[in-house]
Automatic annotation (TrEMBL):
It comes from Ceutorhynchus assimilis. It is a multi-pass membrane protein. Belongs to the inward rectifier-type potassium channel (TC 1.A.2.1) family. Residues 448-458 have a biased composition (Acidic residues). One of its GO terms (molecular function) is inward rectifier potassium channel activity. Coiled coil: none annotated. This is Uncharacterized protein.
Length: 464
């Protein structure tokens, strides 16, 4: 059972006040309107019974928002009720026409020459089976309508139309419930913590947002709301007052493109709702909740989604920044995003200026090399960065095969080739002690190497 669906518990108002939003635990939980997973932590009470009938006026959205067990039960009762109503109508037609008389039953219709409205109707059970077969076009062949009763023909047309309508309604509800945004937002990730630090000389509130699905999000919109108590000029206290916060990612305003996880920030200036919290202690003392909302459209299905998360004052870290998680892998010639670093933050040195620290820290990270060409910077193996000569060329080519590096001596002769150790079992090691391998002519390097081979190796190394 979901923790936010507290309507399942029949509790009095006194018990609700004593307990938190988790009725089975005495532990106090943080006061927040939006949970970390995006669900609303709001309980609607004191609703009159006549107001609940308003949900039936919008039955489609009510079924979509309801849990699966209630939706399936409603659809099952809907079909069963339709079968039952039409079965009663078919039975009434047969009863009024006299088909249920003892002399007019199907077993004696051939003797008496009676022509019924519907063939093979013995009673209500037969009428119910005929209603079920007619609505779903089963067509067993034992029961069929005749031309004797016009009212039966009209009822057949009505049941066919109503049956197709109910089938379409049920299929639409199930399909819309499967692709609804409640499941589509499960792949959108918000960082567990938010940070406040300087960026380009400006104090910014920053979070990290990412999407793990392969299909991209289009028409992305980001917005944030600060929920806190406000006092008007007249002295009136407005609890849970909402103030909008402007968010942007890089220079893409609030409509970014999610190629990889992005750091979304809000500039804290004089017009910001966070301007009065210039210090961490002031923010911790006053209750504040920052709700972040991401609205987008899924490219594969075209469904509009809205993902939410919130951050309390104790979940905001001052003087921290997010670690870089995007780098360029030259081994496979593509960008990599390391999701293990999604929530990783690191502290900025307090004795150093934030701007200088960011400039020095980001100059050595992989994120600053995203715009560089693939030929610049480090390659997959650092062996190719050093100037190569004849001996180091062979050491670099053999290092990918051997488990250990070969230390060359300052001699002109090539060292003896050491065959790499193979992962053999203890049983094979025991057998090898009895059968020693004869020395092979390939155990040592050749004393001379052709100039053509040397030129070919140098060409391959330079190409890499």
């Amino acid at each position: 059972m979901a923790v936010w669906d507290v309507e399942w518990f029949s509790q009095t108002a006194e018990n609700v006040k004593k307990k938190t939003w988790l009725p089975w635990g005495p532990k106090k939980y943080p006061r927040r309107a939006i949970l970390k997973d995006g669900h609303e932590n709001i309980y609607r009470k004191s609703m009159k019974n006549w107001r609940r009938w308003r949900f039936l006026q919008d039955i489609v959205n009510t079924l979509l928002d309801a849990q699966w067990r209630w939706t399936l039960q409603f659809l099952a009762l809907e079909f069963f009720g339709c079968w039952l109503v039409f079965a009663l109508l078919w039975w009434l037609i047969a009863f009024v026409h006299g088909d249920l008389h003892d002399d007019h039953l199907p077993l004696r219709q051939a003797e008496t020459g009676w022509n019924p409205c519907v063939l093979n109707i013995y009673g209500f059970h037969s009428a119910f089976l005929y209603s079920l077969e007619t609505q779903h076009t089963t067509g067993y062949g034992s029961r069929a309508i005749t031309e004797e009763c016009p009212e039966a023909i009209f009822l057949l047309v009505c049941q066919c139309l109503i049956g197709m309508t109910l089938d379409s309604f049920a299929i639409s509800i199930v399909f819309a419930k499967l692709i609804r945004s409640k499941h589509a937002t499960s792949t959108i990730q918000f960082s567990k913590k938010a940070v406040i630090s300087h960026r380009d000389g400006k104090l910014c509130f920053m979070i990290r947002v990412g999407d793990i699905r392969r299909s991209k999000l289009v028409a992305v919109g980001l917005r944030a709301i600060a929920i806190k108590n406000e006092t008007t000029q007249e002295g009136e206290i407005l609890p849970s007052f909402h103030r909008e916060l402007e968010l942007q990612a890089d220079n893409a305003s609030n409509n970014p493109t999610f190629l990889w996880p992005l750091i979304v920030y809000h500039e804290i200036n004089k017009d910001s709702a966070l301007y009065e919290f210039s210090e961490a202690e002031k923010m911790r003392l006053q209750k504040i909740e920052i709700v972040v909302v991401l609205s987008a459209t899924v490219e594969s299905t075209g469904v509009s989604i809205e993902a939410k998360s919130s951050y309390l004052a104790r979940e905001i870290l001052w003087g921290y920044k997010f670690e870089s998680m995007v780098s360029y892998n030259k081994c496979v010639n593509c960008y990599e995003s390391d999701w293990k670093k999604f929530d990783n933050v690191r502290k900025i040195n307090s004795g150093q200026n934030l701007d200088d620290d960011e400039a020095s820290s980001f100059s050595d990270t992989d994120e600053t090399k995203l715009l560089n060409s693939p030929d610049d910077g480090a390659s997959c193996s650092t062996d190719f960065l050093e100037p190569l000569n004849y001996k180091t060329l062979h050491s670099s080519t053999k290092s990918s095969v051997r488990n250990e590096m070969i230390n060359f001596e300052d001699t002109d002769e090539l060292p003896a080739y050491k065959k790499p150790a193979s992962p053999i079992t203890d049983k094979l090691k025991h057998k090898r002690s009895f059968f020693q391998r004869q020395p092979s002519k390939y155990d040592n390097y050749p004393e001379t190497i052709d100039e053509s081979d040397e030129e070919e190796d140098v060409f391959v190394t330079s190409a890499v």
